[in-house]
Write a structure and sequence with these properties.
GO molecular function, one term: mRNA 5'-UTR binding
CATH topology of the largest domain: Alpha-Beta Plaits
Strand order of the largest sheet: 4-5-3-8
Protein name: RRM domain-containing protein
Number of helices: 2
Number of domains: 2
Distance between the termini: 34 Å
Largest sheet: 4 strands, antiparallel
GO biological process, one term: post-transcriptional regulation of gene expression
Keywords: RNA-binding
């Protein structure tokens, strides 16, 4: 027996393929079914990712309302709260297309309180 990706076990001699469990037959080609108690995750256990954006090079004078106004003026709707720290902020987008549009529209092109903003995908500390 060997350990597969994610700590699960794969039976030896099957080339790492998992055995079908009852209920898996006929689940169709990759369609995701909702399972009670798993929120937005399906059978695969994958979460639908929010697209968190990092906004950097902000003046200490910038407020969350300034950022909401800036995004609103450019018709870039925010999905939730603006998490503002000193010199940077984070915003969420539920849709990758809107996140890409925000990055392309704002990054290096918009000045706010005398500083040109940087906008990019947020990267967790583990991956930096």
């Amino acid at each position: 027996m060997r350990v597969g990706v994610g700590g699960g076990r794969a039976e030896g001699g099957e080339g790492g393929r998992r055995r079908r469990r009852r209920g898996d037959e006929g689940s169709g080609g990759g369609e995701e079914r909702r399972v009670p108690g798993r929120g937005s995750r399906g059978l695969s256990g994958k979460r639908r990712m929010m697209n968190k954006l990092y906004i950097g090079n902000l003046s200490p004078a910038v407020t969350a309302d300034d950022l909401r106004q800036l995004f609103g003026d450019r018709k870039l709707p925010l999905a939730g709260q603006v998490l503002l720290k000193s010199g940077y902020a984070f915003v969420d987008y539920p849709d990758q297309n809107w996140a890409i549009r925000a990055i392309e529209t704002l990054s290096g092109k918009v000045e706010l309180h005398g500083k040109i903003m940087e906008v990019d995908y947020s990267v967790s500390k583990k991956l930096r």
